[in-house]
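Hi support team,

I submitted a single chain yesterday and got back a structure, but I'm not sure I'm reading the token output correctly. Could someone confirm the output below corresponds to the sequence I sent? I've pasted both exactly as they appear in my results page.

Thanks,
R.
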Amino acid sequence: MVKGILGIKLGMTSVYEGDKLVAVTVLKAGPCMVTNKMTKEKNGYNAVQLGFMEVKPEKLNKPEAGVFKAKKLSMFRYLKEFRDMDGEIGDKVTVEIFKDSQFVSVSGVSKGKGFSGVVKRWGFGGWPKTHGSGGLRRPGSIGAGTTPGKVFKGHPMAGHLGVNQTTVQKLRVIKIIPEKDLILVKGNVPGPDKNFVVVKAGG
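Hi R., thanks for writing in. Yes, this is the structure output for that exact sequence:
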């Protein structure tokens, strides 16, 4: 059975694991509520939809609020489907679905870094640093000669960097704090603080 939960990234800190100081990311995950259930007979696949972060009705448009009102459920800012996960509408999902030392994957939108050159964006080496080349961080030649006489589509060039949906896998859970809905995972996760993230077991 797939296990997952929604949350936000609070930031990074360090904690002791035995006699070692470990860098961890603190995630506030849940409590989430099962707001919908999909079945193979009706929808073609099995899944549950989780809602996270309760909001007032005026924060949603009428169609969105109407879905929650029809089911007599609280209204949530974030919704996400998890395939092959068990649950019934109205069930609560908390961080206690995870255990210390298990591995999880965390998905989120990476930090935006604006317009970036080829050295920062793709790791190009740049031009020679001596003899007055004047190139330094320039891309250099981007096309071929007579054959094929064009720049191929998808060539690495300068452009917008970041703001991509990113998943970091195999992050180890260092500690679960159920009373505060916190998960401490070893390492970093995508995005800035207060970024919305999806946490799944395994990965």
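A quick pointer for reading it: The chain has three helices and twelve strands. Let us know if anything else looks off.

Best,
Support desk
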